[in-house]
Amino acid sequence: MNESVQITNLRVVRNGKIILPDLTMSVERGIVAGLLGPSGSGKTTIFRSIVGVQEAESGTITVLDRPSGAKELRTKIGYFTQSASIYSDLTCLENLHYFARLLGDTEISVEEILDLVDLRRNRKQIASSLSGGERARLALATALLGKPELLILDEPTVGLDPVLRRDLWDLFHRLSDQGKTLLISSHVMDEADRCDVLYLLRDGKVLANGTPQGLKEQTGKADMEDVFISLVEKL
Ligand SMILES: Nc1ncnc2c1ncn2[C@@H]1O[C@H](COP(=O)(O)OP(=O)(O)OP(=O)(O)O)[C@@H](O)[C@H]1O
Ligand SMILES: [Mg+2]
Fold this sequence. Notes:
The protein has 7 helices and 10 strands. The protein is α/β, with parallel strands linked by helices. The site of adenosine-5'-triphosphate has 13 residues, from strand 2 and helix 1.
């Protein structure tokens, strides 16, 4: 299948509240896809569904040709969550070795990954003493272990300075050039132009999807914030 993720008629209800009424979307392989929408629009819920930890009322999700949650997918998906999942009392290097062991990964990739996220200088530093951006990069590094084919990154650039954000987006594109698929969420519309394809989300529904340029042409707007507003107003 040419898609890395195919979601069909997914319905998710949590505590009696309909979060995703009827979601259908697919993500091609080897691209940087952006999931953009305001807070509460369902981005994290979609990611949890793809990873296989979110119970659904109905619908199907196929990830890399397997049903979501399948055991074989464990090493094929890298998941960066909004609450950085790293151990504060371990150094950067220790964190990576720990997670690498869980995945059965080799030590060489730990070194490679430290370079990739530019944390070589901090390798011996205890995670609790890292700055916010460094912590985010360390958490991202743990998602990159095991050389996953699909990277799911939930707001990976939040709170980072513009230079670091640009560097991370460059890294995302280098990874997609290697054939990986990246699915990245953001509620910052100005990150939209950095994605190959966008899914604009509101109230658990995809308002529109396409290339940033395509969406601008479709709505006749020059910036993504206005594209979003014009799509909402057409509802
Ligand atoms: N356990 C729960 N019970 C009830 N409602 C929930 C539960 N978990 C999430 N929700 C609701 O589901 C909706 C979607 O949440 P989700 O976390 O997917 O949004 P999001 O787009 O990731 O938001 P953000 O940008 O703030 O991270 C929100 O309205 C949230 O309040
Ligand atoms: Mg979220």
